[in-house]
């Protein structure tokens, strides 16, 4: 029938154009990391070649059959490579015999083509060859569909997101082939209308198959999205153009015989390539994109499901559950399909410090991870920082010069989301790059910003609860200490009375002498303890006096070196402003902790020097070290101790004593390597200059 021939020519021409351009697009823009990329390009190119042959020659000619067999073999090989792209090496070994069997059955088509060609395409031999060919094609289609089912069902959820477009397109291809050859076998011949439609079916399959090689294919769904909608509108415009070109091609008859059909097919292919490259223009493409997003775009996220998942992740509790910090990172990472993430929390001074991670143990976070200028931008602007844009030099709020280099040098770092609570920066979550790369869009920014505010409220609430709990424990501690002080007062009074009585009534001089020495020492120690307890927490800048910091350090070294190897490796004379007893008490806590953390043969080293503004004392050990989580949440928290039976107040008391003198206590630690405590107190001369009084002693070291 004449109309069937015209439809066959039109549809196969469309199939050739779409398949060829899909192959070109995958070769240029497809995900380069996929192992099946070039197999797909070859399969689409051979399919386009078959469509050209089917559009140019009669379906019964041998060149059409040969090109179809080549295309089918290529698609079988693509199916095999899809198993390899899934990353399951064991699956490749298991499916190889099945794939070889399908390939062998398809190769038998060459023999059937030769048999049909030798019989002239007519007679019982040709009919038998046609029916046998249809049976073999049905077997190949059924086997390919079974392999596709096993591929998709057995794939991991993350792999399904990558494979689903390709699997769906290939399932459609072989499902159509199965029905086509089933009808042909039952009808004992090929139906002209179905033969013509095959070209259009190939064109329809090629589009989603090419989409599957897009780097963002895993983020796309089968429901209409902005990308699919825009492509659909573009195809409508291009389709109108192609229809006009096909009409023009039908009018061309400048070449006689079979060459006319080949000339027309070449014109259609050239027109199709020109259409995709040059149509529509940038202005028209931009208008189509905006129109699609505004009127037809379906949201990326199902907000109901996202919020339910977020609530379940944050709200779960139990003895075996992870901390709130880790759950906060996971809840945000789940939204963007990020495989891991890290949390930076604001400390008491407002600086961002490492607060934990979720599935990112190898992230090396420096002690000062984020400059204060960038933290201020996060707090003031609520900026969600995309690191790929920062690496490309794109700037939004003047943040580019403040982005830390260690994050730019971390390829997995993808985005930083601020956590804001009442316009105050609580922390920042750094998200790792998703398995399938994509750019953050306006919907990501909106949802991540809202989730960040919600997480900030949870973290702020937890911090408030911890502060209330700490205050309650301190209140109980103070009540207990009041009883202790009362008992110590009574004991001191009793011992003093015993001392006076012994001086008056002891008969033996030797006994009296020993008793006096013992009792006097005990009374002195108790009185000193009582004085320290009475002074605790009352130190102020009004009571600060200049003293030699290096001398105090040497006193501490002399006290402890009899029990453990304590070495003063560096000592410079310097006068600082503070209280000698408070510094001794703080140093004693720190050195004792260092000794407890070190082995018997591991020395504790001290350094005392001046940096020009402050007197600095460093206490260094090579002991067990402390984890980042304990440094942030446990070291300076009262009643939290890593030592068995420890009271957990020594480090806290040391820090408070040093702060009361206007100093600073910093800690660096690595598990298995050791710990460094650094005490800084202002030099007396520097403090005098700052206050405007000038130095009072020329002998002071600055």
TrEMBL record:
Keyword tRNA processing belongs to the record: no
Enzyme Commission number(s) of this protein: 2.7.13.3
The keyword Glycoprotein is assigned to this record: no
Key words of the record: ATP-binding, Kinase, Membrane, Nucleotide-binding, Transferase, Transmembrane, Transmembrane helix
Bilayer-spanning residue ranges: 6-25, 37-56, 62-82, 94-115, 135-153, 165-184, 190-211, 232-252
Record domain Histidine kinase: where: 483-685
Xref: Pfam families: GAF (PF01590), HATPase_c (PF02518)
Catalytic reaction list: ATP + protein L-histidine = ADP + protein N-phospho-L-histidine
SMART domains with a match to the protein in the record: HATPase_c
Domain of life from the UniProt record: Bacteria
EC main group: transferase
GO MF annotation: an example: protein histidine kinase activity
PANTHER family xref list: SENSOR PROTEIN CREC, SENSOR PROTEIN RSTB
NCBIfam families from the UniProt entry: PEP_his_kin
Protein's name in the database: histidine kinase
High-level lineage: Bacteria, Pseudomonadati, Pseudomonadota, Alphaproteobacteria, Sphingomonadales
């Amino acid at each position: 029938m004449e109309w069937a021939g015209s439809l066959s020519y039109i549809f196969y021409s469309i199939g050739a154009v779409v398949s060829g351009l899909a192959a070109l697009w995958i070769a240029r823009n497809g995900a380069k990391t996929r192992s099946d990329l070039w197999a797909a390009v070859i399969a689409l190119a051979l399919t386009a070649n078959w469509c050209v042959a089917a559009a140019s020659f009669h379906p019964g000619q041998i060149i059409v059959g040969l090109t179809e067999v080549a295309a089918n073999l290529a698609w079988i090989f693509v199916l095999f490579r899809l198993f390899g792209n899934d990353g399951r090496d064991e699956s490749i070994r298991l499916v190889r015999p099945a794939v070889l069997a399908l390939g062998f059955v398809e190769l038998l088509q060459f023999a059937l083509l030769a048999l049909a060609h030798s019989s002239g395409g007519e007679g019982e031999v040709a009919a038998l060859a046609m029916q046998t060919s249809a049976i073999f094609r049905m077997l190949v289609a059924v086997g390919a569909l079974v392999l596709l089912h096993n591929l998709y069902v057995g794939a991991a959820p993350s792999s399904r997101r990558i494979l689903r477009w390709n699997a769906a397109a290939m399932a459609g291809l072989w499902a159509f082939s199965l029905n086509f050859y089933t009808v042909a076998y039952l009808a004992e011949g090929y139906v002209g209308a179905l033969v013509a439609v095959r070209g259009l079916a190939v064109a329809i399959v090629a589009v989603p198959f090419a989409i599957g090689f897009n780097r963002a294919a895993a983020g796309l769904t089968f429901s209409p999205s902005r990308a699919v909608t825009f492509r659909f509108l573009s195809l409508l415009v291009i389709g109108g153009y192609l229809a006009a070109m096909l009409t023009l091609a039908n009018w061309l008859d400048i070449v006689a015989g079979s060459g006319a059909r080949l000339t027309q097919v070449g014109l259609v292919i050239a027109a199709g390539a020109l259409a995709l490259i040059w149509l529509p223009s940038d202005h028209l493409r931009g208008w189509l994109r905006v129109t699609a997003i505004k009127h037809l775009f379906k949201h990326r996220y199902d907000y109901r499901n996202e919020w339910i998942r977020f609530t379940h992740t944050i709200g779960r509790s139990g003895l075996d559950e992870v901390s709130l910090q880790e759950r906060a990172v996971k809840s945000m990472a789940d939204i963007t399909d990020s495989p891991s993430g890290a949390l930076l929390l604001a400390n008491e001074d407002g600086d961002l410090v490492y607060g934990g991670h979720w599935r990112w143990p190898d992230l090396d976070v420096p002690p000062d991870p984020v400059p204060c200028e960038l933290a201020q931008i996060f707090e003031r602007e609520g900026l969600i920082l995309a690191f790929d844009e920062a690496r490309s030099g794109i700037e939004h709020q003047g943040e580019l010069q403040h982005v830390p280099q260690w994050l730019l040098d971390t390829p997995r770092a993808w985005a930083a989301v601020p956590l804001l609570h009442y316009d105050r920066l609580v922390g920042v979550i750094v998200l790792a790059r998703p398995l399938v790369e994509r750019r953050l869009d306006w919907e990501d920014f909106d949802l991540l910003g809202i989730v960040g505010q919600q997480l900030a409220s949870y973290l702020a609430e937890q911090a408030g609860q911890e502060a209330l709990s700490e205050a309650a424990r301190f209140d109980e501690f103070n009540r207990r200490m009041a009883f202790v002080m009362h008992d110590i007062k009574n004991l001191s009074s009793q011992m003093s009375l015993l001392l006076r009585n012994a001086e008056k009534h002891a008969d033996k001089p030797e006994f009296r002498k020993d008793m006096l020495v013992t009792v006097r020492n005990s009374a002195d120690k108790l009185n000193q303890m009582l004085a320290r307890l009475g002074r605790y927490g009352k130190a102020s800048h009004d009571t600060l006096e200049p003293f030699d910091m290096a001398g105090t350090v040497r006193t501490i070294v002399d006290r402890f070196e009899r029990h453990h190897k304590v070495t003063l490796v560096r000592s410079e004379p310097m006068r600082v402003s503070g209280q000698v007893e408070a510094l001794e008490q703080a140093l004693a806590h720190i050195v004792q902790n260092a000794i407890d953390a070190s082995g018997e043969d591991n020395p504790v080293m001290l350094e005392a020097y001046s940096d020009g503004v402050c007197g600095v004392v460093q206490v260094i050990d090579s002991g067990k070290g402390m984890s980042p989580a304990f440094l942030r949440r446990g070291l300076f928290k009262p009643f939290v101790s890593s030592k068995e039976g420890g009271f957990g107040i020594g480090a806290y008391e040391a820090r408070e004593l040093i702060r009361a003198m206007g100093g600073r206590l910093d800690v660096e630690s690595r598990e298995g390597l050791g710990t460094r405590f650094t005490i800084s107190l202002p030099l007396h001369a520097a403090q005098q200059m700052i206050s405007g009084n000038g130095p009072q002693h020329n002998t002071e070291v600055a």
